[in-house]
Amino acid sequence: MTGCKTIRKLLRLKGLKVVAATFKQDKRLLLTVKPHKNGCRCPECGRRCRIVRTRTELRMWRDVSVCSWSVWLQYRPREIVCPTHGRVSEDTPWADPYARVTYRFEHLMLSYCQIMTQKAAATLLRVSSSTLSDLLHRSITRLRAGHRIHGLRTIGIDEISYCKGHKYATLVYDLDRACVVWVGAGKGRESIDVFFNAVLTPHQRDQIRWACCDMSEAYIGAIRDHCLNAPLVLDRFHIVKALNTAVDEVRKEQWRLASRTERHALKGLRWLLYRHSSTRSRADSRTLKALEQGNRRIYRAWRLKDEFEQFWEYSAPWAAERFIQRWMTSALKSRLEPLRQFVNTLRNHYAGVLAFIGSRLTNAIAEGLNRVVKIVKNRASGFRNLAAFTDMIYLTVGDVNIPAQIPATFHTLR
Ligand SMILES: [Zn+2]
User: Fold this and answer.
1) ∠ CA(302), CA(157), CA(388), 5° rounding?
2) Distance in Å, CA 89 to ligand 1 centroid
3) Residues with CB under 5 A from ligand 1 (ion)
4) I need a labelling partner for 310 at 20 to 30 A (CA). Which of 15, 238, 252, 350 fits?
């Protein structure tokens, strides 16, 4: 076996022949390559075509590093004339026509970025962080190009901040398939309208059967106007959050009014009041029991919050409605202002709250996805621009498996 053949076999290079190999001083391994079976294939249709120009520019492709050698492929793609596609540069089977890296490198890069920070991926791939984010953006844009959303039946809409200084993006989830289908800038009505008007067809809008969102007027309005066949379900998580905030308001108010000795008893209550009954320990129950004597107002607020948990267990809408009516009456009687305000919120969104019982549409999936998105965000300690953040969302929780779009023979992690 000749040296070049050995290198090809060792590096498991596919679709090409190694013509020459040079080990450079700066730890680069330069491989002069050429396509298998003399190439000359059209990149569009794969047909063998006539060569019209051979003296073309030398192109370089970055490949996966081996034993601290960064491997580069070099070749002069010849110009050919395809009867259908005209004058084009011949196909290079190891890389996309416009890419600066090989398919293998791209696959490894995308797979790494799914599970680790870009910085870590850049170190492993031996490229700079800025190069990596540039390559990543190009790859994701190319691999998602022309993608259409399919089979969207249950949608969830939520907002997320992606940068210090309150910059927001709107995320649209497919709750059946647990993925993000769209990311848009801003969190207002005009942002979400872009999704319904420009991304979905009228037929797709009619196909939506359920829609779930938080109490944002912009999203509620958009769902009412665009999804005519979809009843709105208010996101359970956001309702619970609003209730928790109301309870916390009561606690803060009491804290302000309390004397120094009384404050001692109120310490460490915050997270305890938030806690769901299923995760409460014996010690927590004792503290809450003591609270009944210690501070009646906080205790009353907490009791109301605790009782409200029952609502989510109902399966019959009439029973749930009866429960919520009674609960609202006792909350109004409690003489706790934050809880009264919460009752007002419930009244304003009454149908949306009750719709949960019929649909059992939990936004747990969206919340799970949101958690992943937040991990991605924290991993990068914030994104400077939305494009970079969108790339990472599509790569980690998007509706397309992006690394799988690369030809299977170049999948490296197998
Ligand atoms: Zn062609």
Assistant:
1) 115
2) 10
3) 42, 44-45, 82, 84-85
4) 252
Domain segments of the chain as ranges: 1-94, 154-235+363-398, 236-359
Work out the burial of residue 370: count CB atoms within 10 Å of its CB; fewer than 13 is exposed, 13-18 middle, 19 or more buried.
Answer: buried
Longest dimension (CA), the chain: 92
| CA–CA separation, 172 and 174 (whole Å) | 7
Question: pLDDT (tens digit, 9 = 90+) per residue, 294-310?
Answer: 777 888 888 888 888 88
Query: Which residues of the chain have a pLDDT value below 50?
Result: none
Quote the tokens at residue 237.
């998580």
Query: pLDDT tens-digit profile of 260-275?
Result: 777 777 777 777 777 7
- Predicted confidence at residue 271, as pLDDT, reads 75
143-168 tens-digit pLDDT:
888 788 888 888 888 888 877 767 88
pLDDT computed for residue 363 by the predictor:
63
Any idea which residue has 């939506």 for tokens? 208
Would you tell me which CATH number, out of the four given (3.20.190.10, 3.30.420.10, 2.60.40.1120, 1.10.10.10), belongs to the domain 154-235+363-398? 3.30.420.10
Nearest to 359 by CA among 225, 179, 231: 231
Cβ–Cβ contacts within 10 Å for residue 181, how many?
22
> Structure tokens of 169?
């993006």
Distance CA 303, CA 330 (A): 11
Neighbouring residues of 269: CB distance < 8 A, sequence distance ≥ 6: 251, 287, 291, 298
Cα-to-centroid distance, 102 and ligand 1 (Å): 22
How far does the centroid of ligand 1 lie from the alpha carbon of residue 44, in Å? 5
- Say how far apart CA 162 and CA 185 lie, in whole Å: 10
CA 228 – ligand 1 centroid, Å: 45
| Predicted local confidence at residue 192, as pLDDT | 85
Task: Name residues whose C-beta falls within 8 Å of residue 163's C-beta, 6 or more positions apart in sequence.
Answer: 382, 383, 384, 389
CA of 42 to the centre of ligand 1 (A): 5
Distance 85 CA to ligand 1 centre (A): 4
Q: What is the pLDDT of residue 382?
A: 59
**In this structure, are residues 59 and 77 in contact, taking their beta carbons and an 8 Å threshold?**
yes
